[in-house]
Amino acid sequence: MVSLKKIIPILTVTPLIATLGLTGFLATYNRDQTVHELSRNWMRESVNQIKSQVRINLRKPEMIHKLSLNPYHSNPSIWNDPQQLTLHFYNQIRLFSSINNIYFGYSNRDFVGVKIRDNGRFSQSYAGKETDYQLVTYTLNRGGERGQILNQNAVFNPTTRPWYQAAEKSNNLVWSPVYPDFTTRQLAITAAQAVRDRQGNLVGVVAVDYFLNSIHEFLRDLSISKAAKILIIQQNGQFIASSDPDPLTVLDPESETHLMITESPDPIIQGVGEMLIRQLSDFSLISEAQSLIFVQNNQRYLVWVEPIESQWNLNWVTLVILSESDVFNSGQNNRIQVFLMVTAFIGSILAVWNMNQLVVSPLLRLNTTAKKVKNQKFNPQKNIDLVKRNDEIGQFSRVFEEMAVLIQERQTRLEQRIESLSSYQKKANISSSEDSDRSPELNLSYWDKLKQKSQRIRQKNPIKND
């Protein structure tokens, strides 16, 4: 026989546990899907903002070139006077932030450049017949006029420089790879464009050195959390900008080393770089946005990789690395979810215990009462609390008690009647015994008496044969 004590808790707790487990699984699955989708949307939006910021920043060198070319076509004499050209470059650097150096290399090997120094002051670099083509650096006052000599270097020929030769072969703006500036230790890029006269003859090449620190600061402000990492790299894997505070270059005694992503001091960034090389072989193969999963030390990271397309064909790639556990503080959400599930489980146990007290226990008491009724030990006072209940258990208890009392009364009357019949039978047996003592014939049956009488008659009057 199956006991209600076992079957009801099993039938109650099992569905609750199954429901809690399924609810927890669906909640975790939906949470992960929602977090991943929101993370991808955030990373996609971040990349769009990065692209927009890169275009805004790189338009500054482009605007400087336009401002330089327009004066040449309107007043070519400016380019023939080093002092006027110096003043023109000086005003442009003051107008545009993040511009470090503007210079012009003539086709006849002359060179004029204006640079802002680490101390915030300006200097002019000049090479020509006046200096025997040695590169001499002068101070500039607030009016942009040449001052004292700061240093004097060896002979300098701008026509042999990569930026000059690259721009000479093109009629468009030419961008150099990102490189570390030795004096400032900042990453910079050079934009160069050829200047030609109306006949198309090459006059020289104007170049602008643009620092990328503004993009670097933008990535730091864009980061959603401390665990999120946003990077821009060249297709050769070298850093351009990063939201991390770690330096992107390493200064050694001989030269400034531009770090690769696989050389990052951050193990997560380094691991992501190695993963991309394993999967893609070459960063130049990244032609469209991709979403990847990176796992390190049992921690999952969402990685978004997308090329930055521009009209300048820079071939830069942006990476967004987001810790899965850090997204919307999912660790705390896990604790809250576990707490809610434990609370629900304890609540279900209490509900089962309450059901046992309200339903199972009264039914078991009524079962015990039925046995007492059978054994004639029924006491209505012991179930008085069940009879007073106003629910179905109380109604059933009252009906059961009435039935038990009725059965008990009937059983009592039956016992009394049996006892009465038993007494009467005993009296009848006693009377019969007394008659037997007075005459043995009284113990004979009626038919025996008739038989004896018939024999006596035949003996007195025997029948004669014919």
UniProtKB/TrEMBL annotation:
Q: Which residues form the signal peptide?
A: none
| Segments forming domain HAMP | 357-412
> What's the chief localization of this chain?
membrane
Domain of life (superkingdom): Bacteria
Question: Which UniProt keyword terms apply here?
Answer: Cell membrane, Membrane, Transmembrane, Transmembrane helix
Subcellular location(s): the record lists:
Cell membrane
| TM segment ranges | 7-29
Topology in the lipid bilayer: Multi-pass membrane protein
- PROSITE patterns recorded: HAMP
Q: What is this protein called?
A: Cache domain-containing protein
Source species of the chain:
Roseofilum halophilum BLCC-M91
Highest classification ranks of the organism: Bacteria, Bacillati, Cyanobacteriota, Cyanophyceae, Desertifilales
